[in-house]
Amino acid sequence: MSKTAILEELPTLTAEDRHDIRIRLAELDQDEWLDEGELTVADKRVIEDRVADLERNPAASIPWAVAEGRLTSRFGK
User: Fold this and answer.
1) Spatial separation of the C-alpha atoms in residues 68 and 49, rounded to whole Å
2) Disulfide-capable partner of 62 in 11, 21, 29, 66 (CB 3.0 to 4.6 Å)?
3) Which of 53, 48, 20 has its CA nearest to residue 10?
4) CA-based nearest residue to 1, from 23, 19, 27, 21
5) What is the rounded distance in angstroms from the CA atom of residue 41 to the CA atom of residue 47?
6) pLDDT over 70 for what percent of the chain?
7) Cβ–Cβ < 8 Å for 11, 69
8) What is residue 14's DSSP assignment?
9) Contacts of 11 (CB under 8 A, 6+ apart)
10) 41-50: Cβ within 8 A, 24+ apart
11) Of 5, 8, 22, residue with least CA distance to 77
């Protein structure tokens, strides 16, 4: 199957099939496609600001399991 044929087929696949394909591609690429290099100074600043806010207001945060559940119910898997 050619690359063109694969790309044309993608929109016809179910969300579950596309998810399985993403997982398989990540396995083949050893997750390198997720690594876009070093964080920028601006990215680091955003992270630092958010961590500081969490330390100042720990009650304003929610556990990951709760956040994940909300995201899953809103957007699906």
Assistant:
1) 22
2) 66
3) 20
4) 21
5) 10
6) 92
7) no
8) -
9) none
10) none
11) 22
Q: Which two tokens stand for residue 27?
A: 């396995």
Instruction: Report d(CA 63, CA 70) in Å as an integer.
Output: 11
What letter would DSSP give residue 31?
T
- Provide the 3-class DSSP secondary structure of residue 53: helix
Tokens 């087929």 belong to 9
Q: Say whether 37 sits in a helix, a strand or coil.
A: coil
C-alpha distances in Å from residue 26, one per residue of 22, 31, 32: 6, 5, 7
C-alpha angle 34-37-43 in degrees, rounded to nearest 5: 100
Distance, CA of 63 to CA of 5 (rounded, Å): 43
Question: Mean per-residue pLDDT for 19-29?
Answer: 86
Please tell me the distance from the alpha carbon of residue 77 to that of residue 22, in angstroms, as a whole number: 13
